[in-house]
Amino acid sequence: MNRITSLFQVEHPIIQGGMVWCSGWRLASAVSNAGGLGLLGAGSMHPDTLREHIQKCRKATDRPFGVNVPLMYPQIEEIMNLLVEEEVKIVFTSAGNPKLWTPFLKEHGMTVVHVVSSSKFARKCEEAGVDAVVAEGFEAGGHNGREETTTLCLIPAVRRATSLPLIAAGGIGTGRGMLAAMALGAEGVQIGTRFALTEESSAHPGFKAHGLFLEEGDTKLLLKKLSPTRLVKGGFRQAVEEAEARGASADELRELLGRGRAKLGIFEGDLENGELELGQVASLFRQSQTVAEVMKEITIEYDEALRAMEHY
């Protein structure tokens, strides 16, 4: 047991990232049932859909699970009240100021965790009263920090900046990666990409198959004039690269992005026109697996690597 397993009352200090179009009730409940903490990704759900997923997740597992809420969500007040109504116990917030909603969530007895990309924002989280922070490095998929700090550099910086329980994210998908994060000062890890590619992920089978054949360099951080986003190779990424190469303005990029690109790519499987988001760690994986298989592999590899380190 450590501060993360105690905080969430889980067996392993492994949190599944609350990813848009991937993190439905099947994925979250599978991770929780395997001893980690599953998260529902509210960012791609209408309020009624989120309520349905919370209720289905509760039926599928008797273990703790949580909800990830991007604070830029357009119906944020409705979502927060819904979490209270459904008596959600754990909330991860991201993409916004933690001071806005942490007091409200804490007043209703929730454990609150916020995702940061710098030690500066980690300190703000401590001031806001959150229970823990996720420090997410440049390697992560999807929306990313503007600082472009790698996990290797970010975790010790955040550890030095705050005494809060610390969860590492970005480029972690193996037991050895988990051990490395712990050596740097983390007490748990948040894993997105590897869980996004599991059988229980709600992502489209075509997206998952594509993600299992990526090489190093097949993801790239783009859209920095809007919100830095790590994109997988494909037709849309090529269009973005060409636009940025010719100096496209933020408005031009916003028009190119349009609406529903992530749903088109991740959920509907349009690999040419959709926005495909995965982290750099995807290049390590080639096999379709269940959540239970992934959790077992990570924990066994972690224990083996830890024992091997004792002989160094």
Account of the 3D structure:
The protein has helices spanning about 5-10, 25-35, 45-60, 75-85, 100-105, 120-130, 150-160, 175-185, 195, 205-210, 235-245, 250-255, 260-265, 290-310; strands at about 15, 40, 65-70, 90-95, 110-115, 130-135, 140-145, 165-170, 190, 220, 230. It has about 300 residues and is an alpha/beta fold. It folds into 2 domains: about 5-205, Aldolase class I (TIM Barrel, Alpha-Beta Barrel), CATH 3.20.20; about 205-280, no CATH class. The chain has an 8-stranded parallel beta sheet. Strands 7-11-10 form a 3-stranded antiparallel beta sheet, with helices on one face. Helix 11 (about 235-245) packs antiparallel against helix 12. The mean pLDDT is about 95.
Summarize the structure.
The protein is of the alpha/beta class. It has helices spanning 3-8, 25-33, 47-60, 76-85, 102-107, 119-128, 151-161, 175-183, 193-196, 205-211, 235-245, 250-257, 261-267, 291-309; strands at residues 14-16, 38-41, 65-70, 90-94, 111-116, 132-136, 142-143, 166-169, 188-191, 219-222, 229-232.
